[in-house]
Structure formats: C-alpha cells, structure tokens
Design goal:
The complex is a heterotrimer of chains A (about 325), B (about 280) and C (about 425).
Chain A (H helix, E strand, L loop, with lengths): L16 H4 L5 H9 L3 H26 L16 H7 L2 H32 L5 H13 L2 H12 L4 H8 L15 H27 L3 H9 L4 H12 L1 H16 L3 H6 L11 H11 L3 H34 L1
Chain B lengths: L1 H32 L20 H12 L2 H30 L6 H9 L6 H14 L6 H25 L3 H9 L4 H12 L1 H16 L3 H6 L9 H9 L7 H21 L14
Helix pairs in contact in B: 1-12, 2-12, 3-4, 3-6, 3-9, 6-9, 11-12
Chain C lengths: L1 H24 L12 E7 L5 H15 L1 E7 L3 H11 L8 E3 L4 H8 L7 H10 L4 H4 L3 E2 L2 E2 L2 E13 H6 L8 H13 L3 E3 L9 H10 L1 H7 L9 H15 L12 H6 L3 E7 L2 H7 L8 E4 L11 E12 L6 H11 L2 H11 L14 H11 L3 E5 L1 H4 L2 H16 L4 H16 L7
Parallel strand pairs in C: 1-2, 1-3, 7-8, 10-11
Antiparallel strand pairs in C: 3-10, 4-5, 6-8, 6-9, 6-10
Classes of the chains: A mainly alpha (about 325), B mainly alpha (about 280), C alpha/beta (about 425).
Chain lengths: ~325, ~280, ~425
C-alpha cells in the first residue's frame, strides 16, 4: 500500500477530492467514504458499557426512591430521600470537600504531571528521570495507606518537614482538622496519581508534529513562548483526556479518604462518594445512600458533558 | 548552544529534586518491608535496619495469604481485559473521529459515561445478576466486568488521539481502495503504538490492583484475583500482621506492574508521525 | 516497523481471544459436591483468619468427614451487603459469620437462618456452651447460629514498663487512675485510644463500669444518649483526656506497636489482640499481660466485662442443610474449640477449653464461665447500624474537641430517635 504525501487541509469545510465532483445525498456520501458498518465499530463498546455499567446502576436509582435497609423488602418512599438530602449537614461538608478535591486535583496531579512530562521530554535519560513519578501508581492499595499513615501521623514526617521549613502546621495533627485533612489527603493522592497524567501527557507530546515547532523556532520563539503558542494548543487532545479524567476521578474520590480517615474524624473529611458508601453500607440506609449516589452521578455526568462538549467542539472547529 | 545546555541542565536538576521527594515514600516502603517483622518502630521508620529480611517477610506473607493460585488468574485478567478494551475503545474512537459517526458526541458520551458511576454501587446488582446468569465465580465473568470498566478510558484516549491523525490519510487510503477495516488495522492502530502502550500499562495496573470486584464477584482461589487475599493481610485488624510483612506483601504484589512500567519505557521516548493537521 | 507492529497487534488480539475462550471454560464455579467428600464453604468477614479456618478444616475432615474452605472478605460493610444479597440468589453460603445483636435478630426474623435451639440446649447440658452466652444468640425465644468466637475485652499492658515503675495490675478503678498518674509523671502515656473503628471503646468501658443498666437500655432505645449517666461518662472521659492520660487518637500506628515500644503502657482491646502481640514475637506473661478493667463504680455487684462474640450461621435454604448443621454441632465441642482457640491464642466459647501458655486469659475465661462477671455485649454489635455509624463519627469528633461532648451526644440521640421510631425495640 503506497502512501502519498498528504495534502494540507486548510479549513474545516474543505472537501476532499471525493466530494468535489458531485453532491450526492449525505447518506450516499457517508457510505461511500466511511463504509457500511460504522455502527458496527461502536456497537461492542456501547453494548458492553450499557449492559454492565448502566444497567446495574438502574437498581441504585430505583433504591433511591425506597427505604431499603439491605434485608427486609424495600418500601416505597417517593422523594423523601431526596428531600432529606437538602437538610443533611454532613452532605454539605461532603460537597465542600469534594469541591476542594476537584480544585486540588486539577491543580496538583494535573499540573505536576504536565510539568514532569514537559521537563523530561526529549532529553537524554528523560524516561528514567520520569520513573520515580510513575512507580507510585504501580504500588498496590493498602500498603500505601500504611506508609502515608506514618508520614501523616501526629508528630510524623510531614510535621517534621513543615517544622524544618518554618511553615505553619508543624505541631498540628494533620488529619484531625478540616479542611486541612482534605488538603493533606490530596497531597497523598497526588503522589500516587501523578504517573497517570505524566504518561498521558508524554503520549500527547509524542504526537505533536515537528513542523509547527520548527516553523515557530524559525520565527524566533523559544522556551515559554514556544510552549504557550505552539506546544500547548497542539497538546490539547491529551490535555482534555487528563483533565476530563481528573474531573471525574476527583468527584468520585473514595479510596484514599476511606483508608486514611474513613471520612472522619466526625465526618469532616467525607467526600460525596464516602458519604454514599457510609450511608449505604455502614449505616444500612440503602435508600438514602442511593439518593446520594444518584446526586453524585448526575453531578459528575453534567460536569463531564459540559467540559467535554466545550473542549471537543473547539477541536472540531480547529480540525475539520 | 550553551544556553540550551543550561536549560537542559536546569530541567534535569528540577526533575532530580522532585524525583527524590517522590521517592521518599517509596524508600519508606522498601526500608520497612525489609525490616525484621518484630522490629518495626514508627519513630525510627527512616533508618534501615541491620538485617535484610525482605525475602523472609515476603515468604511469610505468601504462606499466610495463599497467593499462589490467584496470581495466574490475576495475570489473565490484567492482560486480556485491557487488550480487549483497547481494541473496543480504538474501534469506538475510530468510528467517532475518522468515520464521523452521526451524533458522534452522543455516542462518545454514552461510552465515556460508564466511568461516571461510583463502582461501589454496582457491586450488589452485579452480584445478583452474575449469579442469575451463572457468571458468578467464573473467569469469563471477571474478564467481562474488567473489560467493561476499561473501555471508557481506552475509548476516551483513543478518540482524542485519533483527532491528531490527519484525516487526509484516511481519505487517501480510501481512494486507493482500502476498506475501513483495513485502514483501521493496518494504518491507524500501528500509528498509535504510544497511546496503546500507555493505555495498556495503566489499565493493566488498575486491573491488577482491583479489590472490590474481585472480592464480590468471585470466591474460588483459582478465580479470585490476588488483592482480596493481600488486603486480608494488610488491613484486617484481626490479622495482627506486623507492618514489615504487610509492606512486603504489598511490594511483592506490585512487582509485575513495576516490571511492566520498566519494560515499556522505550515506547515513550520517540516522537510519532501522525501526519499534518 | 509498521508490519511488525501490525503482526504483533493481530497476534495479541488472536491470542487474547483464544486465551479467553480456553481459560474461561476452566473457571470453576460452585462448591464440589461429590457424595463422599463434603466440603463446606465458610463465608466470613475475617479474611485474616483464613489460615486458621483451613487448619480447622483439616481437623474436621478427620473427625466428621466434612471439610471447610474459607471465603474471606476484609471489608465488613461490603461483606454484609454481599451476604444479604446472596439470600436472593442461588449462591447461598453453606456457613457464614455474622454479628450478634440487632443484626442477628434481623436475619432471624426473616426466617433465613437455621434454628439451632436443639444444639444450644444439648450444648449447655454437655457443658460445651455457657448459659450466660445464650441470650445473645436468642431471638424471640429461639436460638440461632453458634458462637464462632468469643472475646473478652480488657486491658493489655506492657509488663516491662509496669515493672520499671513498680506497678501491678489494679483491682479497683482508683488503683488504675493511680497507675495512670504514676506513668504520666514519668512521661509514659498511660492509655491507648483511637478515632477510627474502635472509637467507642472508652465510652462503653466507662458506661458499663458506672451504669450497666443504662448501657443495656441504650441498645433497645429505652434510654437516651443525653441522660445524666451518659453525660457523666463523657465528662469522665474528657477529664482523662485533659489529664493527658490518653494517646493521640489520630496516630495511625498499630496499637500492638505502640504497646511493644512502651509508647503507650496500656491498650484496652479484645482478647483476640493476643494474635497481634504474638505476631510481634511478644510472649504473654513475660512481655505483656492482660487484666479485667475494674468498675468505675465500686458499689456494683459484679465486674462488668465487655463480651464480643460472633456467630457462625447456617441458612435454612443452604445447599446442604444436613451437613451444615452437623458442622455446627461439631464446632462447639472441645475437639474443634481446643485447636481453634489455641491456634489464635484467643478465648473460646467452650468453658472446658483453656489456652495453654496464657494464664491471664485462661483465668478470665474460667471466671467468665463460672459467672463471676456481668457480661455485656460489645457496643459494635449492640447498637443498630445507623446509630453505630453516628456514634463512631461522634466519638471521633469528641476526641478531637473534647469540650463538644454535649453536641456529639445530641447527634447520636437524634440518630437513635430516628431509628427507634421506625423499628420495634428488642434485641
């Protein structure tokens, strides 16, 4: 199969040579260019996800309208659980903490991940310099909780470090007070998750074509200007992936918090997912917990749609 | 030229300093996993002990947790599920971006929406459904759920990655008479080796470290993955497992993922040729 | 490069498909059901006890021809959800562990659990089961399940630290406070407390030592968390915290490590804590000891001791009900209880069993069997789940801000009120 030098597409509307001659119906054109089985490509993914992830969640939606306790048959409760959501102070704390998680996660793991990827790209030994940031993701679950327990213990390592740099908090038990405990846990999670973002940003950097960079360099751009004007825009497909994933993951934060504080002390470090879990499985209030789950899912879904719609349509406009 | 070298030097310096900070908790893990089981003291957690008991601790953990049978099945899940998910995700991404599927954004949100659900809530209905359809405690059942979980991430990355591939490549190949399937297999997939490798490494690790689904949807030693047994040692208060042993088993079980990260390093050093935009 | 990548991709896809089909077929499902060799599956939330269960399985195989395979879960909430869900499926457990208290009553009243009244009556007559334990396994006049384990809560102490300052195990509360004072003056933290999972320990210990009746009534909704007896307990607890007797509750270091290093001199815990101690190479009677915590109120007739007991249950619709019941019958006999208790170094429900090598524990077991203590069910089992969840959070918050005890009690009371208004009282 031969490859030709591909022609440059200049505008979004520029048609390929295929459509220049005549204007058949869209369906014909599509089938001619894209083949007959486009839907076949998307079917396995759609079916798998719909069957194994969407369908089971319908059970949760149903439960949110009941008073199920896990054992006795469920009794219908209508909107009672949702109304209770509005009066739950613990939920407000959870929402506040979750917002901190979203902000903190888009800043720290994403920002640092980008920094490491950019710094280590295209220099000798860059892959090895990246390794310390990738390995934490490979460590399994509870062992990390143990170690961070040591680091975050009262009078533990982090306290010593803060004291060394004469920063406030040297004598504060870091996990006992809100919202400090949330911030500290974000740091712990950053340590673990930065590798994912770094790796994805590296893939993005790898896919940037050389020509625009060379052209900009000829124009005299370098360093920060080069990054801002050329690299950053071209990185945007993978940036969207990283930020999109970070948004969803931060809204659903559970593991780190549960292992470290179980949402405590006194429910001060709970996130929406922790509240959901605690109400459903610890307090055996499946109905109310499911309402929290539905709230969490709706919020995550809406945020994702808004963010992705904005990102992806912007790219479509640039790309054709 | 000198300026370039200075900048590179600065970059390396920053990376080394940051890297050392990042390695600190890892150092803690290794040093304390190698400590004799009864010698752990949080006040001296940073000081390596005189004797190197790492292997002894690992062996003790291995015996206590009965890890042998579950390693094979965990490997199966961690290799097969991401592989299938990557394929399905790439197909989806390809159809949305390159084949310009009608209502592409909606289809994409449908698949990506799979990540939106909190997984803890899926456990009970999945268990009930699995037992009804005889999928409970089967390797196929676990492969199925791990694949389903992995598809949204793979689809997202591949979809966005494919937007960077020049559409003209597709058009030219179609003009040459290639079928879409051939273009997908012979052109787009090979072009994406970097993204494929990244997705595989990340999803292998994620599947390997899964606890909840493996614990709820399986029970036999040869079907259950490795994490439930490890977690029993590490987090169960009634176990009384000494910290060095708990850390040692965590390390032991992390080795395959670490090895994979090391082995795939070379995929992430070279640039790709995706054609011009 | 491209051709090779293509081949690799194709090869990977092909092998993946083949592997899946072949190995999926090899996935095992369900328990073995040969007629001569019966093996029962024990679902349990004590994943760490799997080796011990397997050991017992070997013993039972020899004794009664039935083997035991443990299926361990480590996350209690997930385990409960799983077991409850399994009642509605065709994957029911042969045997499973559960919780005494309201949880047991719930599943008993749903007619899911097998009735074991006959086993209990026979067991009490044979001396294999203590009469004092019966009430915790009784729902509406019938017994269900048998005790999987029994643990008594008391104080573990570091013998070397005690010896260093010339201290001996106390027999009165005043002596215990004196010991705390002495330790504090030498810079040793007397007591351990934690704000996760076991944040209720001091609450229950102080309450059963002052007003055990109120403690009982709390668990049936008849007493309020804001009643004077309970408020009094919180004030006492606050006093101990302010006097500096308590360790930092936010410290996540394992209590066995804190005790071993002398960071803390005493740890209130269940007798199963022995397992943690021996895993650290500590010897009972040499490095550490165990004593029953004296009542705060010396006027009470008997020393209150917190009892933790988990049931071993079988289902009415178990896959093999006869084998399950046979197993339960065997479980309470010394043939099972001796190795079970010895391997973990913990107490047994069977009064005939003693733990060799641990005099402190054996003494406590003997006294308990002779009815010398007022045994009270642990708060973790006695409180209904929503109330327990609220209480654990409230106690955790209290430990960080001890002067907020009234607010915390009110929070727990609100949860209790909401629960008891829609559930019948009675455990």
């Amino acid at each position: 199969m031969t490859t030709r030098t591909p022609p440059r597409l200049t505008t979004a509307r520029a048609p390929g040579r295929l459509t220049a001659a005549r204007k058949p119906s869209r369906g014909h054109h599509d089938r001619a260019l894209f083949g007959r089985f486009r839907h076949g490509y998307i079917a396995p993914g759609a079916l798998l996800v719909a069957g194994l992830l969407y369908l089971p969640f319908l059970w949760t939606v149903y439960l949110s309208f009941t008073n199920y306790d896990g054992l006795s048959p469920a009794t219908w409760a209508g909107l009672a659980n949702y109304r209770a959501l509005l009066h739950d102070p613990a939920l407000l704390t959870a929402i506040r903490n979750t917002l901190i998680w979203v902000g903190g996660t888009t800043l720290l793991p994403v920002g640092l991940g980008l920094l490491v990827a950019v710094l280590s790209y295209n220099i000798k030994g860059g892959a090895w310099l990246r390794l310390p940031f990738l390995l934490p993701y490979a460590f399994s679950g509870a062992g990390i909780g143990l170690v961070w327990g040591v680091l975050l213990s009262p009078g533990g390592t982090l306290n010593h470090v803060l004291g060394f740099f004469h920063l406030p908090g040297a004598h504060t038990p870091l996990l006992s007070y809100a919202p400090l405990n949330t911030v500290v846990l974000i740091i712990a999670m950053t340590w673990q998750q930065i590798g994912v973002n770094t790796l994805l940003f590296v893939v993005g950097l790898q896919s940037i074509p050389r020509e625009p960079i060379e052209a900009a360099k000829i124009d005299g751009a370098s360093g920060w200007a080069l990054f801002q004007r050329v690299i950053w825009p071209l990185l945007s497909p993978l940036t969207t992936v990283v930020v999109g994933l970070a948004l969803v993951a931060s809204l659903k934060t559970f593991d780190v918090v549960w292992v470290a504080t179980q949402g405590g002390p006194g429910r001060t470090s709970e996130t929406l997912a922790v509240t959901m879990y605690r109400d459903t499985f610890v307090a055996d209030q499946y109905g109310y917990g499911s309402a929290v789950a539905v709230l969490l899912t709706v919020v995550t879904g809406v945020v994702s749609v808004i963010y992705l719609r904005q990102q992806l349509s912007r790219r479509e406009r640039l790309n054709g | 030229m000198a300026r370039r070298r200075a900048v590179t030097g600065a970059r390396v310096l920053v990376l080394v300093i940051l890297g050392l900070i990042w390695l600190a908790p890892a150092y803690l893990i290794v040093v304390n996993a190698a400590r004799p089981a009864g010698a752990y003291n949080p006040a001296h957690a940073w000081v390596p002990s005189g004797s190197f008991d790492l292997l002894a601790n690992m062996r003790r953990a291995w015996d206590a947790a009965g890890l042998g049978e579950s390693l094979g099945s965990t490997l199966l899940y961690s290799v097969v599920s991401p592989a299938i998910a990557i394929l399905i995700g790439a197909l989806a991404g390809f159809s949305i971006v390159t084949l310009r599927l009608r209502h592409g954004f909606a289809w994409f949100m449908l698949i990506f929406g799979g990540t939106v659900f909190p997984s803890q809530m899926l456990l009970v209905p999945l268990f009930v459904a699995y037992s009804r359809f005889n999928l409970y405690d089967t390797r196929f059942g676990l492969i199925l759920i791990y694949t389903a979980i992995s598809v949204p991430f793979a689809a997202f990355v591949m979809r966005n990655f494919f937007t960077g591939v020049a559409f003209s490549i597709f058009e030219a190949a179609r003009l040459d008479g290639a079928s879409t399937a051939r273009i997908f297999w012979r052109m787009y997939l090979p072009l994406s080796w970097s993204a494929l490798a990244a997705i595989f490494v990340l999803e292998f690790t994620f599947t390997w470290n899964d606890l909840l689904f493996g614990m709820t949807l399986a029970q036999s030693p040869g079907v259950r993955p490795v994490m439930p047994a490890v977690s029993a040692l590490q987090s169960d208060v009634y176990a009384g497992t000494p910290v060095p042993v708990a850390l040692a088993v965590g390390l032991l079980v992390s080795l395959p993922a670490i090895a994979l990260f090391l082995a795939t390093q070379r995929f992430f050093t070279r640039g790709l040729t995706l054609g011009q935009l | 490069m491209r051709r090779r990548m293509r081949k690799v991709a194709l090869g990977a896809a092909a092998s993946a498909t083949v592997l899946t089909t072949v190995l999926a077929g090899c996935g095992s499902s369900g328990s073995s059901s040969a007629t001569t060799n019966v093996t029962l599956k024990l679902y349990n939330d004590k994943g760490a006890w799997s080796p011990f269960f397997t050991q017992l399985g070997a013993v039972s195989k020899k004794d009664i021809g039935i083997g035991l395979t443990p299926v361990g879960y480590t996350d209690e909430p997930t385990y409960q959800a799983f077991i409850q869900a399994s009642f509605h499926t065709n994957k029911k457990p042969d045997l499973f562990t559960w919780s005494t208290g309201g949880q047991l009553a719930e599943i008993a009243r749903l007619h899911q659990v097998a009735n074991t009244s006959a086993i209990w009556q026979q067991g009490i007559a044979d001396g294999d089961l203590p009469k004092g334990l019966e009430q915790y396994y009784t729902v509406d006049g019938q017994q269900y399940c048998v005790p999987l384990n029994v643990a008594y809560w008391g104080m573990f102490y570091n013998k070397h630290v005690f010896a260093k300052y010339g201290l001996t195990p106390p027999t009165t509360w005043a002596q215990l406070m004196h010991i705390a004072q002495v330790l504090k003056s030498h810079g040793v933290t007397p007591f351990y407390e934690t704000d996760v999972l076991f944040s209720f320990v001091w609450f229950e210990q102080l309450l059963v030592g002052t007003a055990p009746d109120v403690y009982q009534e709390l668990s049936t909704g008849k007493a309020s968390y804001t009643s004077p007896a309970v408020v009094n307990v919180m004030k006492m607890w606050q006093g101990m915290i302010n006097a500096g007797y308590m360790s930092d509750p936010a410290d996540k270091t394992d209590p066995s490590v804190q005790l071993k290093d002398g960071q803390v001199a005493m740890v209130p815990d269940g007798s199963w804590f022995n397992t943690s101690m021996t895993q650290q190479n500590l010897k009972p009677g040499v490095d550490y000891g165990f004593f029953v915590i004296p009542n705060v109120n010396p006027a009470l007739p008997k020393t209150s001791v917190i009892l933790e007991s988990g049931p071993l249950c079988s289902l009415v619709h178990a896959p093999d009900p006869a084998a399950s019941m046979k197993y339960l019958r065997w479980w309470i006999t010394p043939a099972a209880q001796q190795p079970w208790s010895q391997s973990r170094g913990d107490a047994s429900a069977n009064p005939k069993v003693a733990v060799h090598g641990d005099t402190d524990l054996s003494t406590v077991m003997k006294n308990a069997g002779e009815g010398k203590y007022n045994l009270l069910l642990r708060y973790f089992e006695a409180a209904p789940p929503p109330v327990l969840a609220a209480a654990l959070d409230a106690f955790g918050a209290f430990m960080v801000h001890p002067n907020t005890y009234m607010t915390q009690l009110q929070t727990i009371q609100a949860a209790a009120q909401s629960y008891w208004s829609s559930h019948q009282a009675g455990s």
